Amino acid sequence: MDALTLIVGVAILGGLVGTLLVVLPGILVVWGAVLAWALLDDNPWRWAVLALATALLAAATVLKYLLPGRHLSESGVPGWSIAVAGAAGVVGFFVIPVVGFFVGFVLGLLGVEIARLKDVSVAWPATRTALVAVGLSVAIELFAGLLMGATWLTAVLLA
Description:
The chain is mainly alpha-helical. It has one domain (3-158). The chain has helices spanning 3-21, 26-39, 44-74, 79-95, 100-117, 120-158.
């Protein structure tokens, strides 16, 4: 195993961890590692792996916004509540390292829904639905990243 392969493998693992911790744009790190691996050799199999990784990235990007958004819309959470919660998540990211985005998002959505619905017992189910949606988004991105990594690893082992 050469140094480039080892570096790409470590970058892919780092991207997968970043997907779970929401510290890095994990799936982009995984794709970038595959891109670097493909660019540094003219082997056509590497380009095929990159093409598949690109298709997985595109599909995951669409699905990670489409499916959780639809899930939230069906539960009656308005888009502006989600936007405010997202802003609170960004603030939380800087206030509490690593998990701050999740904490800020959930607390922001709970606060907005309490203000909108005037009842904690009604606002909590909307917040719980948002947690499921965030989890679904992370799962979609992680699954796509794992597929990219497995495709890359298969190509490395078969080469």
